[in-house]
Amino acid sequence: MTALMYLTVLVPAWAALGQSAASVERDRTMMKGERQSRSGTGYSIETLTVAGMTIKEYVAPNGTVFAVTWRGTGAPNLQLLLGEYFDEYRNELAAARERTPGIRAPLVLKSSRLVVERGGHSRFLWGRAFLPAALPSGIQTEDIQ
Amino acid sequence: MTCVRGTVVMACWCLLTACGSDNSGNNTPSTPANALTVSIGASSVCTNVNEPCTAVTVCQPGTSTCQIISDLLVDVGSVGLRIFRSVLSTSLSQAVDSQGRALGECVFFADGGTEWGPVQIADVVLGGSPPARVPVHVIDPTFAGQSASQNPCNSTVDSDPQATGFNGIIGLGLFRQDCGPVCANNDNNNLYFACAANSCTSTAVPLSGQVQNPVWLLPVGNNGIVMSLPNVPATGAATASGSLLIGIGTGTNNMPAAGVSVLTTDANGVLTTVYKGKTIGSSIIDSGSNGLFFPDTSIPSCAAPLQAFYCPPNSLNLSATIVGTNGRQIAVPFQVANTQSLVQTGNAAFNNLGGELSVFDWGLPFFLGRTVYIGIEGQSSPLGTGPLFAF
Questions:
Q1: Strand order, beta sheet including A44-50
Q2: Do A106 and B156 touch (CB under 8 A)?
Q3: H helix runs in chain B, sequence order
């Protein structure tokens, strides 16, 4: 019993997006970053600084992370940040690149469940992922930066 | 000089000084030594619309064993030379860290494209310039026991030049190295990896060991580049061809024109754009993006599979103002036409291709009909000290 509980604690669902705000701290530990918190109107923002990247996790009043953004030099661990949504993102990305050979654009993946955008250049990559259905009232998608 | 023409690349073994005589970016008697030719729609590999490509010569370090690599995407949004291993017939020198572990790199591009492979040392010849010894990125999904689907990039990485639409990328952007101090100072940068026994760990790499811009290592003309592309009709053009000059104000052919305006960028190469009264940070100028991407919910997007692009019923005359960190503002008029109609022409070069994005990405249409100066960080030219754009 003790062993089982121990396992449960040690092997949480990796993730931020769609998970509780507690997962932010797990992300910070996994990515060896620093953390700051700020409360906004109707939601709060947890900021992680990892190497040259600034990662923001947007937390709804119910404690769920509904959006993550990243910007800076380096690369975020999207598997960690997108959690259970990572496979969907990766499959959609592969499919999008298959669909439009000959036309390349900054990545914009949109479904009713998940939106992911990526862009930038050397020394500056940015991106954002959010759950449209989980946005608290009052926040506009352009507020997620 | 003996050259073997292959299906994908031209392989060329010759003395450096005699190497290169084709019309795709290398030196010919009529071409200035600092000039490369940039072409859109003129290649069986670079088949993407608005995809500017050139050729460079790559040599085994310190030898005259060289190879012309054609069909390289000219990307001022990235830094460094990246070549698919499958088109390399010349063996380069593997870069290692202080513990002798092989260095690899993950590179992420805006379109979601991701490249994995070793960092290797090459002598790179741009046009008729002297060779620059430089760490380059060899694109190879199988490097260090990895695969296209399982690799340190946590992405499906590119593995085929034909499918990707280039033999490689020549990144001639604003910086000396692709990553810079962040990767020199942080082991957890997630770009550079040290690999041993098929296991790769994110690692810090000193500046001199990072993949770098070959231009800044040249003895002359090491302060930037000047890219000039012709304009095209509103329905596009089947091909477009222009020039890429090494150096800014270092010779007779690369002196800045009178009236050129300079926009300095922040340390990460980022500018601000003001569009329809909204100030948009995180703006970039990038020849490797094939359209003008910006936020405007009033413009309808195309139906799938072109949903990333705008499809207004009629061509739109628009304008935005780019603002540099030096406070300089330049208004840039542009057009956005119906992408579906444009691609149906079968043309390859369009000055009015646009799409949706939450920030402003001034892609290839910005470069058509314009001469753009790209000044490298910390390097001086008559336009000032980079990083800067001028046009």
A1: A34-39, A44-50, A52-59, A65-73, A124-130, A115-121, A107-110
A2: no
A3: 161-164, 181-185, 339-344, 364-367
Q: How far is CA B37 from the centre of its chain?
A: 14
Distance from C-alpha of B40 to C-alpha of B196, rounded to nearest angstrom: 40
CB pair distance less than 8 Å for B110 and A107: yes
Within the 175-194 window of chain B, which residues sit less than 8 Å (CB to CB) from chain A? 175, 178-180, 182-183, 186, 188-191
- C-alpha B191/C-alpha B186 separation (Å) is 10
**Alpha helices for B149-209 (secondary structure H):** 161-164, 181-185
Q: A124 and B173 in contact by Cβ < 8 A?
A: no
* C-beta atoms of B113 and A104 within 8 A: yes
pLDDT band of residue B3 (cuts 50, 70, 90) is very low
Judged by CB atoms closer than 8 Å, whether chains meet at B359 and A119 is answered as yes
Q: What percent of chain B has pLDDT over 70?
A: 93
Nearest residue on chain A to B44, alpha-carbon basis: A102
pLDDT band of residue A95 (cuts 50, 70, 90) is: confident
| Model confidence at B29: pLDDT above 70 | no
pTM of structure: 0.90
Q: Please enumerate in sequence order all residues whose Cβ is within 8 A of that of B90, keeping only pairs 6 or more positions apart, or say none.
A: B11, B58, B59, B60, B65, B66, B67, B122
CA B39, CA B282: separation in Å to the nearest integer?
28
pLDDT at B111: 82
Residue in B closest to A96 by C-alpha: B305
**Number of inter-chain CB pairs under 8 A, A vs B:** 161
Give the C-alpha separation, B306 to A103, whole Å.
8
- Residue in A closest to B270 by C-alpha: A124
For chain A, say whether B309 makes contact (Cβ under 8 Å).
yes
**What's the pLDDT tens digit per position in B328-356?**
999 999 999 999 999 999 999 999 999 99
- Residue in B154, B172, B200 to test binding to A, most A beta-carbons within 10 Å: B154
Confirm if B237 and B347 have CB atoms less than 8 A apart.
Answer: yes
Residue B77 exposed, middle or buried by CB count within 10 Å (0-12, 13-18, 19+): buried
In this model, does residue A8 exceed pLDDT 60?
A: no
| B134-182 per-position pLDDT tens digit | 999 999 999 999 999 999 998 899 999 998 999 999 999 999 999 999 9
Q: Shortest CB distance from B282 goes to which of A32, A71, A110? A: A71
Could you say which residues from 58 to 97 on chain B have a Cβ atom under 8 Å away from some Cβ of chain A? Answer: 77-80
Whether the ipTM is more than 0.90: the answer is no
Write out the E strands in B237-307.
Answer: 240-246, 262-264, 271-275, 278-285, 292-294
One-letter amino acid for residue B250 of the chain? T
Nearest CA in chain A to B296: A142
CA dihedral B187, B188, B193, B196 (to 10 degrees): 70
